[in-house]
């Protein structure tokens, strides 16, 4: 093939590539095209339709299936924010909003949060107006953290059946303070602290594989009890073929349901005469341990699938009588935590069983260690049983059996899904695809998709091992590695995952020489050590050549690109099965004769012409440079919530109608991060009362810019918008949906006699088609109702009608009348009273909470100019804010509603935002001069302008002059973004600046003075051919002076009369060349 000189001939039909795959798919595959089940969108499994079809399966993820089950089998679905943060519940909310399934409600996981559910279940605590009280089923998606806060709810659940039924679907994943994730379930201990261990009213069941998660999630709706179903988060996100859950019937006992499913409360594995038994919750750790203990003498493993009610008799019967040492593996919060299992097991053993001579040992696993133990169970076993011979693992065998493919792509890639779908069409291969995102180690983030292919006939136990066990990221395990962005090879240890002789496909236009010259020594050393088979694929060139064939094909570019990559992949994968001919057959079987309107032979020709095998020149290690950056390793640190209700479906095989349905369902959620071209929306459920599209972003920086001793607090905020689809243009403003102060709300509730945890349903404004908010009173007053805003006259008039005491009624009527205008003015403008103040002033006017909500109205979002350019910062939005506060004549300090909220934001806190278009648009031509003038926070949009111009310059784009006038009081205290401005001046991004610090000298200098000095330049820019654009942003008060300065420059230097200069500026306004954004 290619010579050692690195030449890169195209592949030919006779090319010998890597050894053939052990079980390649072939064109002779019995493509499954019979629609075995007919799912009704948007749900993957229509239970009634599956009565007699036991062996049917559908490509999907367990997470999606669980949401679909919950939405179709519940009357209401509550989604707590910690579950949402783990990517669960978004679809349910969307379906509910679209009227396709149970209504969804967004909830906050905080102390007392679960009481809402209790209220809806019609318990004495919460009233009984709910649908659930008529026998409905409520589902809540809540993470382990939220579950830990629900002890009161779980302890007080009404008898199931009487007030409806509750199903908590709990994805087992929580964030660690480090930003990583843990599957620890330590919060089960506080959650179940008030639930008697033998209570039949609530069952806690655990599942650990995708298939089991769907089966148990469905069973939760067939049994009488309230259910807490904890399922494994990681495997639930795997895309794989899942059987439809068995319809079990209704109102069953848990035991009957489990019998019908063929699963047990407790599973025992290993030596039937074991002396040592590990006792473990049904989590991926159990599978990992099972793989080691299955063939190890003297040791066994007991896995708990039903934690409540704790069934002592069944537990004892599952244990071998030979057991002398029970090691109870508990998930614990810290070293003082007792865990949930140990007491149950100890109590059972001591309760007079035949095992009273057995010792029960506690093994507490801390949250941050759990992933490590699951990945390396052998270490845990060796630590527990040092005297026993090393356990025999089935890992090696299972690892060897699986074919392992790794795809490094941008987070929004769909390639891996298309490839997975291709395999999912095959009945002889079982396919698993697990995606993870590292948002931090690469600009724009990087996704690693691990795909495991097993023979469908293989032993299920090995197939069920966690992906992390079978396919560890950093070990030499991948048979095939695809790298969508060649620059990753410069920064990341991508080749660490490849085993020696693996196939590595790099998407690049570089030749072998160029690659060798640009790769860092560490990557070259890996190539030298592992001898991978390297292939380059010039996707861009291949796609362009097809588009050139037909000028109308631009729109289909994405589909063409995906298919081209699929073809390149199959060319390498199918080499043993016939090379190019086999690829032709497979792709034709899936896509037919045309791809996006292009004839298949043309697509294949374009692919073959741009796919090359390369050999890098021999690497001669030089002396290691000390400033060499080490290669980065991939970290799983981001789950972008599946917040996209209708993401653009990836191009996928078109075989049959049910596949079409399946792919639409599946791709929607498995696209973890919306694509950059995404035009879809986050649900308006975040703030359903607003018509604008809203996004939930995370505060990552809140930094005060002025000294703490200074009387003005100007601060810089950064929000991470990863995964939200938020897009903004330079100059646009961000709408912040701020909350009221927590303490003030609590004080008001107490004074007004309100139960903060009671749930109320608030109608949304007209035009919302009868939609309502359902939240606790506390949430409603904190997040929705403008209780501390400024009351209009009508509020006094409405209260007058409700006042019970005559003096109150008269005073209120007077203030709202024409005669009371000066009283109203005093209250409004001097005392600046709030709605809450007025209620306190006239306490006999005491509207009900529902009336109050209606009378006061909703908090309005405040807008802030965005201080960043998305081309530069990516998934980030920056703001520059000054706090608003003022003293009232009676003494207390008042705070602006939104700036108070923003100033108190902590890193990590989520904020609901929207985008508001703005007049502050960049001029149509990059060469037009830009003149920017701002005071204080008026600097915000100009920072975005400057960032953008700097970016343009760095990309070789020719830009016009940039003039910046900025004013504040003191240079040392309020030169906002001063260091950046100085750097831009130095680099020539800002061509001229007029900085006016009014209190630094005795002579007060303002921006208009600086502009007057520059009169000649301003006249040339504004009146000359270059068509300069003038912008003023910030407080309103300098507007007349700035206007005057511009008039003067036109009069003095442009020889215009004053009236002509004024008319000229008016005309500039019309042309959007004199732009004001003042507030
Ligand atoms: C397009 C645009 C861009 C903007 N960009 C920025 C920016 O980049 N940075 C920035 O800091 N700001 C910006 N603002 C201003 C911002 O939107 C807010 O107006 C400002 O932050 C104050 O909001 P707040 O909720 O804190 O104050 P509010 O609660 O809205 O109070 C604002 C004022 O209303 C009056 N008031 C409030 N309550 C009462 C009452 N009960 N009785 C009588 N009077 C009352 C007070 O005079 C108070 O000063 C921008 C505004 C617009 C329109």
From TrEMBL:
UniProt-recorded Gene Ontology molecular function terms: flavin adenine dinucleotide binding; FMN binding; sulfite reductase (NADPH) activity
Pathway(s): Sulfur metabolism; hydrogen sulfide biosynthesis; hydrogen sulfide from sulfite (NADPH route): step 1/1
Function according to Swiss-Prot or TrEMBL: This enzyme catalyzes the 6-electron reduction of sulfite to sulfide. This is one of several activities required for the biosynthesis of L-cysteine from sulfate.
Record flagged with keyword DNA repair: no
Pfam family, one: FAD_binding_1
GO annotation, cellular component aspect: cytosol
Keywords: Electron transport, FAD, Flavoprotein, FMN, NADP, Oxidoreductase, Transport
UniProt lineage: Eukaryota, Fungi, Dikarya, Basidiomycota, Agaricomycotina
Name of protein: assimilatory sulfite reductase (NADPH)
Cofactor(s) of this protein: FAD; FMN
Signal peptide: none
Record flagged with keyword Nuclease: no
EC number: 1.8.1.2
Residue intervals of the FAD-binding FR-type domain: 692-924
Organism for this UniProt entry: Dacryopinax primogenitus (strain DJM 731)
């Amino acid at each position: 093939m290619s010579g050692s000189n690195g030449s890169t001939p195209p592949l030919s039909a006779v090319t010998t590539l890597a050894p053939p795959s052990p079980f390649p798919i072939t064109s002779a595959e019995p493509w499954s095209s019979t629609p075995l089940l007919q799912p009704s969108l948007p749900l993957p499994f229509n239970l009634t339709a599956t009565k007699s079809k036991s062996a049917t399966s559908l490509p999907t993820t367990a997470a999606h299936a669980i949401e679909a089950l919950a939405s179709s089998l519940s009357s209401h679905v509550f989604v707590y924010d910690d579950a949402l943060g783990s990517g669960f519940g978004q679809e349910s909310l969307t379906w509910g909003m679209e009227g396709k399934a149970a209504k969804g409600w967004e909830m906050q996981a905080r102390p007392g949060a679960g009481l809402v559910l209790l209220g809806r279940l019609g318990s004495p605590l919460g009233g009984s107006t709910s649908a659930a009280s008529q026998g409905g089923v409520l589902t809540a998606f809540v993470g382990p953290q939220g579950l830990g806060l629900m002890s009161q709810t779980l302890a007080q659940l009404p008898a199931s059946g009487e007030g409806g039924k509750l199903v908590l679907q709990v994805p087992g994943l929580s964030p660690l303070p480090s930003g990583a994730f843990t599957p620890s379930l330590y919060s089960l201990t506080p959650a179940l602290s008030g639930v008697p261990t033998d209570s039949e009213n609530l069952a806690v069941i655990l599942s650990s594989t995708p298939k089991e998660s769907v089966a148990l999630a469905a069973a939760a709706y067939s049994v009488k009890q309230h259910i807490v179903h904890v399922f494994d988060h990681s495997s639930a996100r795997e895309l794989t073929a899942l059987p439809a859950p068995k319809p079990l019937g209704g109102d069953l006992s848990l035991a009957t349901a489990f019998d019908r499913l063929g699963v047990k409360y407790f599973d025992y594995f290993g030596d039937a005469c074991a002396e040592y038994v590990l006792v473990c919750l049904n989590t991926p750790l159990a599978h990992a341990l099972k793989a080691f203990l299955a063939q190890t003498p003297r040791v066994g493993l007991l896995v708990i699938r039903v934690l409540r009610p704790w069934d002592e008799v069944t537990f004892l019967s599952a244990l071998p009588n030979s057991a002398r040492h029970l090691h109870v593996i508990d998930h614990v919060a810290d070293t003082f935590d007792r865990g949930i299992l140990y007491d149950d097991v100890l109590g059972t053993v001591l309760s007079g069983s035949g095992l009273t001579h057995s010792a029960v040992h506690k093994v507490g696993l801390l949250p941050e260690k759990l992933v490590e133990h699951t990945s390396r169970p052998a270490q845990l076993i060796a630590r527990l049983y040092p005297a026993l011979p090393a356990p025999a693992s089935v890992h090696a065998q299972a690892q060897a059996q699986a074919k392992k493919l790794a795809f490094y792509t941008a987070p929004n890639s769909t390639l891996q899904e298309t490839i997975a779908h291709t395999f999912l069409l095959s009945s002889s291969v079982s396919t698993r695809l697990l995606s993870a995102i590292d948002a931090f180690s690469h600009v724009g983030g990087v996704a690693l998709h691990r795909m495991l292919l097993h023979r469908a006939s293989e032993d299920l136990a090995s197939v069920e091992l966690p992906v992390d066990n079978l396919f560890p990221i950093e070990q030499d395990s991948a048979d095939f590695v695809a790298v969508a962005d060649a620059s990753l090879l410069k920064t990341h240890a991508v080749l660490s995952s490849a085993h020696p002789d693996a196939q590595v496909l790099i998407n690049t236009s570089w030749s072998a020489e160029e690659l060798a010259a640009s790769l860092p020594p560490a990557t070259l050393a890996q190539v030298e050590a592992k001898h991978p088979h390297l292939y380059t694929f010039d996707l861009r060139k291949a796609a362009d050549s097809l588009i050139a064939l037909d000028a109308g094909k631009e729109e289909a570019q994405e589909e063409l690109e995906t298919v081209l990559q699929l073809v390149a992949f199959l060319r390498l994968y199918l080499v043993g099965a016939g090379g190019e001919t086999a690829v032709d057959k497979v792709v034709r079987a899936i896509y037919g004769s045309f791809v996006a309107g292009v004839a298949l032979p043309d697509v294949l020709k374009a692919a073959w012409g741009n796919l090359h095998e390369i050999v890098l020149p021999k690497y001669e290690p030089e002396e290691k440079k000390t400033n060499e950056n080490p290669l980065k390793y991939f970290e799983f640190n981001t789950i972008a919530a599946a917040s996209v209700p209708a993401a653009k479906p990836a191009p996928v095989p078109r075989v049959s109608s049910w596949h079409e349905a399946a792919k639409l369902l599946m791709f929607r959620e498995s696209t973890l991060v919306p694509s950059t071209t995404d035009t879809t929306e986050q649900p308006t459920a975040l703030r359903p009362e607003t018509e604008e599209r809203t996004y939930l972003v995370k505060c990552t920086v809140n930094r005060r810019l002025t000294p703490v001793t200074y009387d003005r607090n100007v601060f810089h905020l950064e929000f991470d918008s990863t995964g939200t689809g938020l897009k903004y243009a330079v100059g646009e403003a961000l709408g912040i949906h701020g909350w009221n102060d927590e303490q003030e709300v609590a004080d008001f509730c107490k004074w007004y006699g309100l139960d903060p945890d009671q749930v109320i349903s608030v109608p949304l404004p007209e035009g919302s088609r009868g939609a309502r908010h359902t939240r606790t009173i506390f949430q409603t007053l904190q997040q929705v109702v403008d209780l501390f805003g400024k009351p209009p006259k009508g509020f006094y008039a409405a209260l007058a009608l409700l006042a019970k005491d005559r003096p109150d009624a008269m005073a209120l009527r007077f203030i709202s009348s024409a005669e009371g205008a000066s009283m109203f003015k005093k209250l409004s403008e001097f005392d600046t009273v709030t709605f809450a103040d007025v209620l306190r002033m006239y306490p006999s006017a005491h509207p009900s909470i529902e009336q109050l909500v209606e009378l006061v109205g909703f908090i309005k979002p405040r807008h802030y100019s965005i201080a960043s350019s998305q081309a530069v910062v990516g998934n980030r939005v920056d703001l520059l804010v000054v706090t608003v506060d003022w003293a009232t004549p009676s003494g207390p300090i008042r705070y602006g509603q939104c700036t108070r909220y923003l100033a108190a934001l902590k890193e990590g806190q989520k904020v609901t935002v929207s985008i508001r278009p703005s007049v502050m648009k960049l001029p149509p031509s990059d060469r037009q001069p830009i003149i920017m003038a701002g005071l204080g926070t008026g600097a915000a949009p100009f920072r975005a302008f400057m960032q953008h111009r700097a970016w343009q310059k760095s990309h070789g784009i020719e830009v016009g002059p940039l003039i910046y006038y900025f004013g504040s009081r003191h240079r040392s205290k309020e030169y906002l973004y001063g260091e950046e401005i100085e750097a831009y001046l130095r680099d020539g991004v800002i061509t001229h600046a007029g900085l006016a610090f009014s209190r630094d000298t005795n002579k007060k200098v303002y921006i208009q003075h600086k502009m007057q000095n520059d009169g000649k330049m301003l006249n040339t820019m504004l009146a000359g051919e270059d068509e300069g654009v003038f912008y003023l942003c910030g407080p309103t008060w300098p507007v007349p002076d700035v206007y005057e300065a511009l008039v003067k420059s036109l009069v003095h230097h442009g020889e215009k009369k004053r009236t002509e200069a004024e008319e000229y500026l008016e005309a500039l306004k019309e042309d959007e060349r004199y732009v004001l954004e003042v507030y």
